[in-house]
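FAQ: What does a ligand-bound record look like?

Like this one, built around (2R)-2,3-dihydroxypropanoic acid:
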Amino acid sequence: MKPIVYITRKLPEEAIKGLENSYEVRMWQEEEKPVPREVLMEEAKKASALWTMLSDQIDRELIEAATDLKIIANLAVGYNNIDLDAARERGIAVTNTPEVLTETTADLAFGLLLATARRLIEAEKTVRSGEWQSWTPMGMTGQDVYGATLGIIGMGRIGEGVCRRAGGFDMKVMYHNRTRRSLEDVEYAELDELLSKSDFVMILTPLTEETKGMIGKRELDLMKDTACLINVARGGIVDEDALYDALKERKIWAAGLDVFEQEPLPLDNKLLELDNLTMLPHIGSAGIRTRHQMMGLNAEAIAACLAGQSIKNRVC
Ligand code: DGY
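The answer part, i.e. the structure of the complex:
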């Protein structure tokens, strides 16, 4: 019997070609809907490898039930959806897909900054709805990006990619990070200083116990009333109730979110009432070439693990 590889979402055929000769590849057949918990539990019990999405909760209960499991390959750079302690205790390898998504995610982050600052989505709606009556001196005006100050919270590879883009806009960049980095033309700042001096605050840090809720009322109050907050990391880092109040009361000027505490965002969520919030459905790495490269890394990690070879991109 071939070892079972279970994939939690329908993928393009070519993504799994390399695995099919040696393994029994089973796949949840829906592209839009995540695999239900009970199906995932049953499949995990039989699988040697799990190929997971960031929307799958791979918790202790599931990991302990998966007695043959050797690897969890997560199709994302973030892996906060996986209980690493539980995986470590069972000797299960966990991998992610870094580097190949760096530039595309930096593109999206900078694109969301531009869209938020210059109200691109709101402006497009006026063209479609017929609200566009004439050119007006102050109509659809936003915040200037060129020459502004950008504060990056979490300076890893994606942060460096955003800095390269910010250079083209002659922005002054400061960053806050757990560890100081030696980077050219980018200044380290304590969090409060970064928040109070930046015109754009961009969150790029992973979601951990330490960063959960790190941007709340106190931090939003420190920001300029002309500032924009951009989050392309994970929803739980920003307290959404506090953000709602700050945007509603115009304590900050606008925000751009690609990530939310609950994804997909429920249609009754009060954030949807706000006109100074630009929202995207977690598409940071959604470039066609990038997604194929991410899938390639996942297939490689699973094949290497099941063949007893050394595994790249292990996070535990
Ligand atoms: C990831 O891969 O963790 C990012 O959220 C992609 O958008």
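Follow-up question: can I read anything off the structure? Yes, for example: The pocket of (2R)-2,3-dihydroxypropanoic acid is lined by residues 54, 76-78, 101, 105, 282, 284-285 (CB under 6 Å).
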